[in-house]
Amino acid sequence: MSARRNSVETVFVVQAILVALLAGGCGRGKAQGQRGPAEVGVATVARERAVLTSELPGRTSAFLVAEVRPQVSGIIQKRLFAEGGDVKAGEVLYQIDPAQYQAAFEQAEATLALAQANLPAARSRAQRFAELVKIHAVGQQDADDATAALGQAEASVTAAKAAAEAARINLAYTPIKAPISGRIGRSSVTVGALATAYQPVPLAVIQQLDPIYVDVTQATADVLRLQRALASGTIKLDGETGRTAKLFLEDGTPYALEGKLQFRDVTVDPSTGSVTLRLVFPNPNHVLLPGMFVRAVVEEGVDEKAILVPQQGVTRDVRGNAVAWVVGQGEVVEQRSLTLGRAVADRWLVTDGLAAGDRVIVDGLQRVRPGQEVHAVPAGEGAAAAPAGGKK
Predict the structure, then answer these.
(1) What's the rounded Cα separation, in Å, for the pair 158 and 165?
(2) CATH of 99-172, one of 2.60.120, 1.10.490, 1.10.287, 1.10.3470
(3) Does domain 70-91+180-201 have CATH number 2.40.50.100?
(4) What is the per-residue pLDDT across 223-278, written as a single tens digit (0 to 9) for each?
(5) How far is CA 367 from CA 29, 216, 313, 371, in A?
(6) Whose C-alpha in 183, 252, 311, 332 is 20 to 30 A from the C-alpha of 85?
């Protein structure tokens, strides 16, 4: 009898536990059913002014380059500069032995003086014979000979002047001077070496580094796109700043000074399908050296009515097309297909698919689906901005 009573009590206990569990489950279901729409963070789209840029690779090159070559032949007597230092235009770099050129100049000066000394006598004789021939005191042939002798004397003076000037120029070339100001490299000759006029190997090379050129390449497809955008008025050149550019060095650090676009080449490289853009940057501290690899950010123009969307608000569908989730009428989620332009800082430039006033979901995308009702709050506020699995 006791065993039967214990069995009945066990059945009652199990039934009570089941009832309690069912009641708890119903309570939780009811509570979940009462939970409100999912909270999402949105960014409201507005038309704004955007400066459009392109990041292009390139290399630096000297603003001016002068290869120093002798213009007369001779032995190098002196080298008057420090390799790797700065020189000024007109500064003497080398001295060629001037002895033979000095002698040639003095000889040419003496020849000129002799020719000039003979000129007055020839001129007087020609004038006298011209008067005497009128009264038939001398023959016409004698007068003609005197006139010819005067012409020869004048030609001798002219030739002697030219020879003296040539000798003076050659003598002036014996000190080899810097044609430009800049930084000079290593010397290819030493004192005592023979220098030959207009030799193929330069004695040294001078490069002007301030300002400095940056030559970058741009694909012709991008050039055509830019030309169409400018022609249609979609973007405009900024009249205040012009075509400005910024620079990043090879290690990724930004260059402190701003440059400008000087010109775009008119020839397309057939091997790469690109054109060269030449930028000019100030370089007072010689941070930039010729041959350095850099990345230039070139300003292309300004879009006064651009639509920009945070990059985290743009996703891709299974086909790879750009899409955005938008909170539409009645706080219901809609999916929009987008046509993207370029990245502008941390946002995408949208050319089609969105309009001013649209609310794009940027926080809580993992909790939405098309047609779902949501509670939209500004991005960065509310529970939608909390990291997944973390605390607010």
Answers:
(1) 11
(2) 1.10.287
(3) yes
(4) 787 777 777 666 666 655 457 889 999 998 999 999 988 887 778 888 888 888 88
(5) 20, 45, 14, 12
(6) 252
